């Protein structure tokens, strides 16, 4: 990615005052090449927003795919999180989990859609997250099916509480997911214990498929790190955004 064209992009920084979280929350917004405020765009909403931009190089990937492969342009919104309390907002057992979901639905979405030409349809919003970011993204989709129909999960931490949440659903044909998991993620070490995320993703995938969710499920050699996820983002983009060159 040495082509200088890929780095000529517009990323703006916004600060949202959240009553739900009782604090301001910073978001980074990528505006695609050729951005036109009079044209509407689909949107990717990323948990761990700073990581997606800095470690995942999501803006560079998106720019390259739009310019070189003719993928439909999109807006990307990266929502910052305080890593010290991240689990409390992203984990279903966390004390700020419900407040974070309310912030996302009732404050973040209206702000973005009033400030930018973001398409408001649930099929034009893609939730994206890694690990626990994938967890909260899936819960947002399940809890607010009128808001979100698509999910990009990078090694989602789909533990028992999340799998039980999936099991409560009877029909998920409206839901589309791109799920990536590394074959070396059978013993992921965290501050809260060790987890077999490979087995968890396989079981979550099974439960989702039984309920007719549309899934692109990918297992590859890889660990629970951005060095693995970063290189797989282009495939996820191609799954969600058609190329103009193939029309």
UniProtKB/TrEMBL annotation:
GO molecular function ontology, one term from the record: hydrolase activity
Keywords linked to the UniProt accession: Hydrolase
Native source organism of the sequence: Ferviditalea candida
Domain of life: Bacteria
Protein name: Alpha/beta hydrolase-fold protein
Entry-linked Pfam families: Esterase
Gene3D superfamilies on file: alpha/beta hydrolase
């Amino acid at each position: 990615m040495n082509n200088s064209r890929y780095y000529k992009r517009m990323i703006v920084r916004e600060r949202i005052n959240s009553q739900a979280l009782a604090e301001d929350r910073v978001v980074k917004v990528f505006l695609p090449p050729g951005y036109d405020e009079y044209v509407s765009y689909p949107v990717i909403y990323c948990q761990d927003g700073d990581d997606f931009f800095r470690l995942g190089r999501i803006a560079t990937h998106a720019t390259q795919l739009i310019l070189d492969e003719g993928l439909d342009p999109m807006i990307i919104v990266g929502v910052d999180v305080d890593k010290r309390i991240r689990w409390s907002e992203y984990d279903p057992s966390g004390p700020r989990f419900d407040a974070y979901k309310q912030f996302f639905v009732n404050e973040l979405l209206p702000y973005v859609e009033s400030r930018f030409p973001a398409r408001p349809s649930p099929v034009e919003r893609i939730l994206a997250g890694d690990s626990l970011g994938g967890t909260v993204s899936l819960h947002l989709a399940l809890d607010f099916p009128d808001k979100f129909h698509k999910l990009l999960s990078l090694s989602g931490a789909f533990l028992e509480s999340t799998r039980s949440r999936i099991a409560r659903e009877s029909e998920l044909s409206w839901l589309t997911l791109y799920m990536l998991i590394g074959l070396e993620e059978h013993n992921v070490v965290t501050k809260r214990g060790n987890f077999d995320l490979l087995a968890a993703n396989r079981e979550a995938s099974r439960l989702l498929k039984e309920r007719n969710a549309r899934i692109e499920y990918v297992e590859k050699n890889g660990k629970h790190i951005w060095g693995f996820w970063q290189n797989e983002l282009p495939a996820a983009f191609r799954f969600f955004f058609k190329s103009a060159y193939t029309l």
